[in-house]
Amino acid sequence: MNAYSESRPEFDFIDWIKKQVTLRPEVKLGIGDDAAILSHQPNREWVTAIDVITEGVHFTSETPPELIGRKALAINLSDIAAMAADPVAVFLGIVLPKSCGRAYAEQLYAGIFEMANEYELSIAGGDTNSWSGPLVLNVTVMGTVEQGKAILRSGANAGDWIFVTGPLGGSLASGRHLTFEPKLKEAKILAQHFHITSMLDLSDGLASDARHIASQSGVGMIVDTQSLPIHTDVNPDLPEAERVQHAMSDGEDFELLLTVSPEEGERLLSEGIQLGVAVTKIGECTEEVGMKLQSGDALIDWPRGGWEHEV
Amino acid sequence: MNAYSESRPEFDFIDWIKKQVTLRPEVKLGIGDDAAILSHQPNREWVTAIDVITEGVHFTSETPPELIGRKALAINLSDIAAMAADPVAVFLGIVLPKSCGRAYAEQLYAGIFEMANEYELSIAGGDTNSWSGPLVLNVTVMGTVEQGKAILRSGANAGDWIFVTGPLGGSLASGRHLTFEPKLKEAKILAQHFHITSMLDLSDGLASDARHIASQSGVGMIVDTQSLPIHTDVNPDLPEAERVQHAMSDGEDFELLLTVSPEEGERLLSEGIQLGVAVTKIGECTEEVGMKLQSGDALIDWPRGGWEHEV
C-alpha cells in the first residue's frame, strides 16, 4: 500500500521545477494540472516534435548531466528549426535511475532550463519517474509557425540546389553533439528571405537524411564530395575518402539541409552571409530518381545498401 | 561508421506504422517530417498531457505487449478527460529492448492503434529507439477544448460536494489498470450539463490526488469513508478499514474526482444517471484547510504523513 506525504520528494522536486519556469503568454496553464493549456495565436499553427535519448546510445553514464539535459532539448529545437518554426513549450518525460540522487536530477534539469531560457520557451509539463534502469529522456517540443509557412521535406524540385548550414562529421567523437546550438535563428532568416523548397535537420547523417528529402519530394540527388564542408573535428590526417565518409555518415551534426531553386541559390550564396547565414552548396536535385556521389569526374551510385565503409 | 540502407528495419517499421494511422483534419501533417503540424480550430485551445510508463513499475515483462501499449495511451487519455477536452493527436516516444523483436513491437503498437482508433485520434509523430535496457513508453497526447472551458484543479470552493465516477481500489492487483476505459465520454457529459468547479483523474490514489485539488483550490476536504465506493477487485473478506485503505491508496483507478456546488450536486445525483454518468458523493470541501476522514461519528486527520497503513 502506498504511503503518501505532502512532503513526498517527488512533489518537492516538482515545486523546485516550477520555480525555474518562466511562462510565455501562449502557455495559459503550465505544470501542475492534468494537462497544459496552450492558447491559440492568430494566423499561426502548432508544430510538435518528439525525441527520445537514452543512456548508452545518445550519451554515456560519464556524460555530465547538464549536457544530457541540454542535448535532449537541443535536438528537439533542431527539429523545430527545420520547420522554420518558433519553439514555445517543452514537455519532459524523464526516467531517472534510482541511484542517481537529487543533485544529479537537478543538474540534468539545470541543463534543460538553461537552454529553455536561452531560447525563451516554457517548461509546460512533464512526468518524472525513477526506476532501476538507466536514464531516459523524452522531450516533446511544441512551437508555432505562420499558417502555411512551415518548410517540409517534400517540396524539393529537380534542378534545385542543395545546401548545408555548416561543416559535417566527427560530432559524436568530439562531443559536439552535446554542445551544438540548434539552428533556430538561421532557419528563420532563411525562411524569411529566401524561398526554401525543402529542409530538415541532419541527425542521422547526410547519407541517411538526404534520402528523406529525395524520396518525399520524388527527386534524385547528386552530392559533390569535393564541396562537402568537413568539420575540423574529423581527423585531417585521414585519407580524403575516409574524411568524406565521416562527414556523410557520422551523424548528429544538427546542421540544416535545404534546397532552393538555382535562382534563389545564387542569391543565397551572395546575400546569405550578410544576413547572418553561411551556407555551402553541396549538390543538386535531379529529375532521375536515385542518389549519386560526384567525386571529381567520377559519378558513382550512392550504394543501395547505403553509405558503406570502403576501407 | 553508420551503414545506411533504404531498407533499414527502422524505416520499414515507420512505414508499417504510417499505414495504420488515420489522420484527423486537425492533423495537417503527421508522421514523416521533422515535426507534425496541427491546424487551429476556431474558438478552441490545445491541451497537452504527457505520461511515461516503464517496465517493472507500471507493467512487468510478462504483461502482454498489446495491453502495455493500450495503457500508455489510456492513462494520457484519462488526463485529457480530466480537462473535459477531446483528444486529437498522439506522439509516441518508445524505447524497445533490443531483444524484443519486431513481432513484439508490432503487438505493442497494435494496442496503441486499437485505442487510438476507438477514440478517433491520430498518431501524429514519434521516435522509436532500441537499447539494451527494459521497455519505456512515453506518450504525449494533444487535444482541444472550447476556449476557457477546460476544467482545472484549482476551482473548488468551500462547501462544494466531492464526487467520484466509479469504484476505487485493487486496480493494480486485478490488472484493471491495463484494461480500463478512460472517462472521456463521462467528462464531456459532466462538463456539458453541470458546472464542475474542479476535476482530475485518480492515478496515484484518492489519498494522494485529492490533495492536489485541495491545495490548488485553497480548501480543505472531509471524505466520508463509509460512502466511498470500493471496487469488487478489493477483497471483500478484509476488515472494512483495510478495504477503505485500498480504495484510497492503491492508485491507478483512473476514475474522475470532481467538485460541484451543493445545488449542482443535488442535480447531478438526480440527473446524472439518465445522462449516462453514475457518480458517488464521497465528501465535501471545507473552508478550513486540511484533509479529514469521517468514519461514522469519528472525524480524524488524514495523517500528515499521508494515508498510512494502520494494520
TrEMBL record, chains A, B:
Job description of the protein: Catalyzes the ATP-dependent phosphorylation of thiamine-monophosphate (TMP) to form thiamine-pyrophosphate (TPP), the active form of vitamin B1.
Task: Please tell me what else the database record remarks about this protein.
Answer: Reaction mechanism of ThiL seems to utilize a direct, inline transfer of the gamma-phosphate of ATP to TMP rather than a phosphorylated enzyme intermediate.
Family designation: Belongs to the thiamine-monophosphate kinase family.
Q: Which gene is annotated as encoding this protein in its UniProt record?
A: thiL
- Residues annotated as binding Mg(2+) 1 are D51, D127
Functional pathway: Cofactor biosynthesis; thiamine diphosphate biosynthesis; thiamine diphosphate from thiamine phosphate: step 1/1
Q: Which residues cross the membrane?
A: none
Domain (PurM-like N-terminal): give its ranges. Answer: 32-145
Q: Binding of Mg(2+) 2: at which residues?
A: D51, D79
Protein name (record): Thiamine-monophosphate kinase
Q: Catalytic activity annotated for this protein? A: thiamine phosphate + ATP = thiamine diphosphate + ADP
**MF terms per GO, please?**
ATP binding; magnesium ion binding; thiamine-phosphate kinase activity
Q: Which NCBIfam families does the protein's record reference?
A: thiL
Species classification: Bacteria, Pseudomonadati, Planctomycetota, Planctomycetia, Planctomycetales
One Pfam family linked to the record: AIRS_C
GO BP annotations of the record are: thiamine biosynthetic process; thiamine diphosphate biosynthetic process
